[in-house]
Amino acid sequence: MRNILEVQDVKKYFPIGTNVFSFLYPGKKEYKKALDGVSLYIQEGRVSVLVGESGSGKTTLARVILRAIDPDSGSIIFNGDNITKKTGKELRNFRKQAQMIHQDPYSSINPLMKVFDIIKEPIDIFYKEYSDEERTKKILAVLDDVSLKPSTVFAEKYPHMLSGGERQRVAIARSLSIEPKIIIADEPVSMLDVSIRGQILQIVKQLSVNHKITVIYITHDLTTSRLIGDEISVMYAGKIVESGSIDSVFSNPLHPYTQALLDAVSEPNFQNVDKEKVVRIKNFDSAPAETGCKFFSRCPYSMDKCKIEPRLENKGQNHTVSCYLYDKE
Ligand code: SF4
User: Fold this and answer.
1) Which of 239, 290, 295 best tests ligand 1's pocket when mutated (most atoms within 8 Å of CB)?
2) What are phi and psi of 214, to 5 degrees?
3) CA diameter of the chain
4) Which helix (H) or strand (E) holds 3?
5) For residue range 306-322, what is the model confidence (pLDDT) as tens digits?
6) Predicted confidence (pLDDT) per residue in 177-236, tens digit
7) Is 299 in the pocket of ligand 1 (CB under 6 A)?
8) Residue 30 Cα, ligand 1 centroid: separation in angstroms?
9) Whole-prediction pTM
């Protein structure tokens, strides 16, 4: 299976503690390393989960991939094309193919517009050649795709007439209307009632299968990632620390951070996770280490050589981890 997206050694640092006086008294600047050399390979037509705690860099990575912000260094390759520095028409063409679903559907849909017009808006921008009849047909078809039926009834509603789950379906339908190749779903169910989270994720999964859309599902919640994902990458402090197939990572978590995340899942016998392989981290609130392994201060297995940064290495069947515990010597 080919990669539709390659993120190659991407870095994005944000200056911290800057204010008006920083310009008057310039000194040594400090930075938050939101992305510190991230490489990620996303296979076409699959659902890849990006998991990590708040502040690990997941959303920054999504924004860099979508070219909402520029990386400081590194490359984004989409469909074999380096899009890192694209502008104008080329960037617009990429944006048609890569869509985002946000955590809060209210942030992406206009509460004053009918569902019909909300979905029509991107079609008007990207498919100017469509006739009115083609537009209507497309809008009703995507409403059907997200199970808002009868679609003719839902098309006439306003967002305030819908439940949270229905609003998120409208946001998904809107993204779907311009036939993207990849959708990045950033915590799309975290603001929804627990009882409907599974339904929304099943819709996203079905879209991936039926329309051959690649999905990157961003979450801090391992419970939902198992419902939808084919592959998973675990982020910690701006780095990918482990990645592989969902089955491989859940049945054999290698990085102590992944093991700790699994330990935090409260459900007993959660989806066949081997609870023997979980670990309790120490110094829960300590900041990531500045040098060496970033997990050093929280890791119960830390040793001297962890003061030098470990590399992400393949430990078999495309299951990669950055940790010295698995060195042969
Ligand atoms: Fe722990 Fe060392 Fe592995 Fe980092 S490299 S996770 S500190 S054992």
Assistant:
1) 295
2) -80, 135
3) 68
4) strand 3-16
5) 999 999 999 988 899 99
6) 999 999 999 999 988 888 889 999 999 999 999 999 999 999 998 888 988 999 999 999
7) yes
8) 25
9) 0.90
Q: Which amino acid is at 159?
A: P
CATH number at 231 reads 3.40.50.300
User: Tokens representing 86?
Assistant: 């694209």
Joined together, the tokens standing for residue 24 give 């008057």
Q: Is the CB of 253 under 6 A from ligand 1?
A: no
| Contact yes or no for 194/178 (Cβ under 8 A) | no
Which of these, 192, 165, 167, 75, lies nearest to 115 by C-alpha position? 167
Helix (H, G, I), strand (E, B) or coil at 129: coil
Distance CA 117, CA 126 (A): 14
Q: Clarify whether residues 229 and 291 are in a common domain.
A: no
Nearest Cα residue to atom 6 of ligand 1: 323
Using alpha carbons only, what angle is made at residue 100 by residues 168 and 127, rounded to the nearest 5 degrees? 95
267: in domain: no
Q: Is residue 233 part of a domain?
A: yes
Residue 296 Cβ inside 6 Å of ligand 1? The answer reads: yes
Strands (E), 230-324: 231-236, 239-245, 313-314, 320-321
Are residues 54 and 100 both part of a single domain? yes
